[in-house]
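Supplementary notes for students who missed Thursday's class. We covered one full example, reproduced here. Read the sequence, then the structure, then the short commentary at the end.
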Amino acid sequence: MNTHRHLVHGLLAFSLVMGAAAHAQSAPQIVWSAPTPNGLANSIVGVAWAPGSGARVAVGSTDRWVRARAASNGALAWSVLQPHRSGTADQVVYSNDGVQLAVHNSNRGGAYRVHRASDGAFLGSLVITIQPNEVVTFTPDAQLTASTGDTTAARWRIVNFSVVRIVGSGYNKISTNWVFSPDGQLQASASQGTITVQRRSDGGTMRLLTAGNLRTTTPMQFAPDSASLAAWASSPNETTLFRISDGAVLRRFPNAQSNEGVTAVRFSPGGTRLVTTGYRPFETSEGWDQRGTIRFWRVSDGALRQTFESGTGIGVTSAVTWSPDFTRFAYGTYAGTVVVANVPAP
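Structure (token representation):
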């Protein structure tokens, strides 16, 4: 691979921008929240809820720490510092059985460090490869195979992963990010205002969509039935739901202000709700400020059902992750706090 091409899991750039004032909104029903234990400045950007019993929530931070907490009360189970100069722990993913935890670091390219979920012990790596036809594959390395006996990535649901490739630098930098369908059959890549939906079996193009951000990564996710794709773009500032079969726009979810930022887009497990996380700037008598924002949308008609802007800090810097029974959700903030709250009524 060209030395100027490297794989990273993307975090949408978080910046202060100006906009019109809007009224404050409510807080989610918080079960518990936990600040970073060491008190150092960091942001939570990766959050995952263990499957099965759902006993733990794992988080990854900009300060390289990965931590696992009790899902019931936030008690710290273990902390592991990622390698020196590895960058942000920008993604955490539990294996299907909850026995392993994959962690991506922003400076480590196409590899996920895999830890034992019970105590954080390092087991090996899951390696990403982008094939010539742009199909993304995941393969255990020799150390992970020796530690676990795994020779394929069957232990993992690829829908939980997100891959970013950055080519070039400065003004000429081009970002491409991939997401994967829940049925494992499709992948979507966004780059320079175009989203390409491909079959993973042979790389064949299913659909080209004029959508997404021109210069930065595009927050997006397939619906649980794999038949549609939601993607956010800053211009116009809205999330759009596309049908894969013909590219038709099924629904639009516009933000209240043109300068709001969206970090991530997530569906509820049944696909009836869409959740966007990010931040909203506003003006005060003393200048400009901003709040973290979580919006719950109804997919059937695009109605905005809840907006949470308290208990969210100045920015929600992770996607939401759901408890296995879909009664609670977790998220991380710019100030390094992880929060678990009750899922609101539809």
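Commentary. Helices lie at 142-148. The longest strand covers residues 273-284. If anything here is unclear, bring it to office hours.
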